[in-house]
Fold this protein.
Amino acid sequence: MTALTEYQRLECPGIWREAAGAQRREVIVALGDATVVISDSRSERALAHWSLPAVLRLNAGEIPALYAPGDEAGETLEIDEPAMVAALEKVHSIIEARRPHPGRLRMTVLGSILAGVTALGVFWLPGALVGHTASALPFAKRQEIGVGLLTDLARVGGASCASRLGDSALSQLATKLFGTGATQIFVMRDGVADAVHLPGQILVLNRALIEDQDTPEVAAGYLLAERLRAEDSDPMVQLLQWAGLRATFRLLTTGNLPEDALTGYAEVLLTTPDAPVDEAALLSRFAAAGVGSTAYAYAVDPSGETVLPLIEGDPHPGGATGRGAVLPDEAWVALQGICGD
């Protein structure tokens, strides 16, 4: 831990310049354990993460205090909040006091260096970096990346389908299956074999799961199964493993991926076989959503042999009707026409 306990959750306004000559903008500055987090004052989106040990004050004794994230950085941050300035000064005093000093025994110095290198090596192992970055991302950033992936999918399979009534039906379907929340469902014309999940609770369906079916329970089943896969294996982790350490580090430190980081990932999503889902867990999702599982089971395997537990354990074997129906008839008709050519 670098920051002091008494300064945890400390925040204040500031003025941030991304690079020399760039326009100054108002931000929110937060003091973390080992970083200074700079976020947009309106959207609260993280703009930059500065390592506390590397932060330099450029105008000692003056207010507003002017900081930079390193010796050669063109990026600057102005802070006139006394509490934050005092916190940064105190943290830096502690960091400086902990630095090795000349005259100490050689073995102590070597031991400290070895321990530091070992700790740094452990933290920067690829898996640790990817996992840490994915867990630190706010939902809004995950959703932003998911929308970016949707654009890359459109490059392969064409733009997603949309219509006023069809979009309303998709919203009703999302609420029926996942409750009121941020889940978004999109329908693609081509490319997607059946369904895929993207970061930020974004689910994508192939149009055939709607147009070629007599009941919305088939599409509902694919969506429930895909959400279960997303919960079993974080799609953000999978994306960062593919994007590589450079892109991951860029996302962690600046809050943004490189511009071309998502290009080509659509092919990976569309050619990776679906991971199996636990049938008992899936049946519980059907039950919780009030959806029958039989129609979905036969869509997966028309013989029924490999999906027998989903047929025999159907929580609504007759299919939900009336107020419990997956979608009202008019919404289902509208959804079937969402890709109207």
About this structure: Strands lie at 11-17, 24-31, 35-40, 46-51, 56-57, 65-68, 76-79, 184-188, 195-198, 202-206. DSSP finds 14 helices and ten strands in the chain. Residues 66 and 78 are 5 Å apart (CA to CA). The radius of gyration is 26 Å.
